[in-house]
Amino acid sequence: MPIVNRVADLQPDIAGWRRNIHEHPELQYDVHRTAAFVADRLREFGCDEIATGLGRTGVVGVIRGRRPASDGTVKVIGLRADMDALPIQEQTNLPYASKTPGKMHACGHDGHTAMLLGAARYLAETRNFAGEAVVIFQPAEEGGAGAAAMLKDGLMDRFRIDQVYGMHNVPGVRLGSFAIRPGPIMAATDAVDFRIEGRGGHAARPHLCVDSVLAGSQLVVALQSIVSRNVDPLESAVISVCEFHAGNTRNVMPQTIELHGTVRTLKADVRDLVETRIREVAAGVAQITGTRIDVKFGRGYPVTVNHAAQTETAIRIAKEIAGDNNVHDTPPMMGAEDFSYMLEARPGAFIFVGNGDSADLHHPAYNFNDDAIVYGTSYWIRLVENTLSA
Fold first, then answer.
1. Same domain, 31 and 158
2. Half-sphere exposure of 312 (CA within 13 A, CB side)
3. Which DSSP symbol is given to 365?
4. Is 0.90 surpassed by the pTM of this model?
5. 11 and 155 belong to one structural domain
6. 17: containing domain
7. In this predicted model, what pLDDT tens digit does every residue of 27-47 receive, in sequence order?
8. CB atoms inside a 10 Å sphere around CB 73
9. Number of domains observed in the structure of the chain
C-alpha cells in the first residue's frame, strides 16, 4: 500500500503549517505560540478531547475510532511529535526563515509537529479504526526532558495509552525511505564537568605554580583511553570534552579552570563503567599533577530502546508505505532522544524517516524537506488503522 491519497491532497496544508511553525521557533518549554497553534488545529479537526499544559506546555489530542473492538476492550495508541527549536541563528535565506534572531528549527521538529497534525486531521475525518489514537505534542526535547515532564503529569495513565511510537527525520537518508532497528537505537546522554584547581602565578616562574592548564590538557588526553582501553571493542561509548575554560591573559597561570563534556553509551553497564573510570582517571591526573580535580557527572536521557513486537509492527507499516526496499535496518545512533522516557513507560518503537540530501541536523543551513510529509503522515495513519483494527 503506497502513501495515502488523501495525505497527498493535504500536503500543501501540512507544509503550510510546518512553515508557519518554522517562522516562529520557540525553545524548550517556552513553546506557547506553537502549542496554541497545535491546539487550535486539533479543535478545528474535531478531536474528541484536547488537553493542554501537560509537562508545562505539552498538548494532547484524543481521536476515537468509529468501530468497536471485537473483544469489547478499548486499545489506545500514542503518537508523539516534538515542538521545540534550537538556539541557532538560521542561515537558509528561505522566505519562511525564522523571524526570531538566534532561534531556528534546525532539527525538523516543525516537520514532526506538522506531520502529526496532518495525521490527526485525517484520522478525525475518517475514524476508520477501533480504539483511540492519542496525538502527543511535546515541548523541550532539546535538553529539557519534556517527555519526562509529560509522564510526570500522568500522560500514560490519564489517556490509558497501551503503546507509544515516535518518529524523527534524518538527513542523508533517501527521501521516501525509513530506518529502524529493535533494541537500542539512540544513546544515553550524560554531562560531565571538571573543576581543576592548581596554584596560580607568573607564567615565567612555573616552578612556583601548579599548572591547572597542563593538568586539564593531560585529563582530556587520558579520558580518551577509557573508550579505547576499558570499554569492550564490540560495545559503544563516546567521551567528548567540548569546553575548556582557562585564564584570561597570556602571562598568568590560572588558579582554576573548568572543562565540560558529554558522554554517550548504549548499555547500562557500559554507562556505569564509563562514569566510574572517569572519576578514577581524574583522581589519577590530580595525583600526578598536584592539582585538585572535582568531577560532577549528571545522568541525562536514558538509552532509547525499541521493543521487539512494536518494532516489527513499525517495519511492516513502513514497508506498506515505502516498499520493502525502502525500509532499512540502521545501526544505533550516538545522538540522544528523550522519547526514551516514553519507551521506558510503555512498549513502542522509534523510527527514522528520510530527509534526503539536506544539511545535517543542528546546522544553521538545515531545513526539513516538505516532500517527506506524505511518507511520515501516511505512516502515522496506517500505524493507527492497522494497530487498532477491530
1. yes
2. 2
3. T
4. yes
5. yes
6. 5-186+304-387
7. 999 999 999 999 999 999 999
8. 11
9. 2
